[in-house]
Amino acid sequence: MPSIPPGARQRCKLCQVEIQGMVGGKDLVHFSQGAPGTRAKLWARVCQYLHTPEQCGQCLNQDPTLRGPVSSNDYYAEAPVLDLGAGLGLPAEPDPLG
């Protein structure tokens, strides 16, 4: 998939995000919720889960040279452990994850 010209936007047929071409090749991904991100973040959260050649052929984010390196911050973070009993005056529960 060729790069997107600066200022132009393309919508992915599969996940419906819009990728906006930027000067210098650092394209901006417009997710349906939240702040814009990078192609690496899109890959970490969505594109890596495609399975069939047909799906991969429709994805706008399959070229590793366009998305760049994926960092640990690009993936979804684990949800925090909440102690709901403390607000009710109950004793604190030990962290189930250690």
Helix content: 10-25%
Largest sheet: 3 strands, antiparallel
**Total strands:** 3
Choose one word for the global shape: elongated
Low-confidence stretches: none
Report the total helices. 3
| Class computed from helices, strands and strand pairing | alpha+beta
User: What share of residues are in beta strands?
Assistant: 5-15%
Mean pLDDT across every amino acid position? 88
Which sequence of strands runs across the widest sheet?
Answer: 1-2-3
Distance between the termini: 45 Å
In N-to-C order, the SSE pattern is EEEHHH
Radius of gyration: 19 Å
Briefly, what is this?
The chain is an alpha+beta fold and about 100 residues long.
List the helices and strands and how they pair.
Blueprint: E1 9-11, E2 18-20, E3 28-30, H1 39-45, H2 53-58, H3 64-67
Antiparallel strand pairs: 1-2, 2-3
Can you describe what's shown?
This protein has helices at 39-45, 53-58, 64-67; strands spanning 9-11, 18-20, 28-30. The longest helix has 7 residues, at 39-45. Strands 1-2-3 form a three-stranded antiparallel beta sheet, with no helix packed on it. The chain is α+β, with helices and mostly antiparallel strands and 98 residues long. The mean pLDDT is 88. Helices cover 17% and strands 9% of the residues. It is built from three helices and three strands. The chain has a domain at 1-64.
Features:
alpha+beta; 3 helices; 98 residues; three-stranded antiparallel β-sheet; single chain; 9% strand
